[in-house]
Structures are given as C-alpha cells and as structure tokens.
Design the sequence.
C-alpha cells in the first residue's frame, strides 16, 4: 500500500521523501500549510506524522498486506519547535516490540503496535514527535 495515494494525503500534498535518506514522507514548503504565526500548522505536522507511521507499518507488513486490517487506535504528539518551510518525517520501532507484536498477532489474531515518528525541518531540526498506536487484526 502506498499511503501517499490515499485521497486525503494526496489532497494535502504528502509525498515520498526524496530529500532525506531516512525520511519516509515530506511536505514541501507552501503557504497553504501555515498558521497564524506564519509557521507550519500543527495539523500539517500531525498529518505528515500519521501518514508516515501508517506507511512504515505497511512496509513492515508488505508480505501479509491483504490478510491484515490495520486501524489507528491512539496517538500522542509533542510539538517541540516551530517549523518553517519544508518538513519530512521518519519512523522507528524497537525490534523487540516487533517480535512481540508478531507473536501476539499469531496467537490472538490481533495485536497493537506503537510506532514513533520524528518530524524534522529542512535543516534536520526536530520540530515534533509522535507515537502512533495501531490496532492490527487478521482479516477473515
């Protein structure tokens, strides 16, 4: 699945990151993303982070994509610094957590997976972090 192709993400202009090797998605510098302080709006930061977490999870589950149903369950965002210009996001999870997730999914046909996302500006300054908890069930 290419999360950037979802209608909402296309509407926002979220696209695959080409400027940073470890980035997944990015938003170009554009006035349409600005808030009343002339910095990138929190909603744009959140949307980029959420899409990144979903793509990261989809990439990990690529072989079983048709057999699984992921849905976002819970999020937490921390906005650290005002963002200016282009932004990009990268995601990580702990390898041990992935092993537990897979074991739980196999045993219970459903599991939770938390993915941390960092949002950075063009100068690699961390502007926001988020944790996205996904509920994943086996499709029947």
Sequence:
């Amino acid at each position: 699945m290419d999360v950037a192709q979802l209608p909402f993400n296309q509407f926002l202009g979220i696209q695959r990151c080409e400027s940073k090797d470890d980035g997944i998605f990015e938003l170009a510098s554009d006035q349409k993303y600005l808030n009343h302080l002339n910095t990138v709006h929190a909603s744009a930061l959140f949307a980029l982070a959420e899409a990144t977490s979903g793509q990261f999870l989809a990439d990990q589950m690529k072989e079983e994509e048709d057999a699984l149903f992921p849905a976002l369950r819970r999020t937490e965002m921390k906005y650290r610094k005002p963002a200016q210009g282009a932004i990009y996001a990268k995601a990580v999870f702990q390898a041990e957590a992935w092993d537990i997730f897979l074991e739980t999914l196999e045993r219970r046909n459903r599991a939770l997976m938390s993915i941390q996302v960092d949002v950075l500006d063009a100068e690699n300054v961390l502007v926001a972090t988020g944790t996205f908890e996904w509920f994943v069930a086996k499709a029947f």
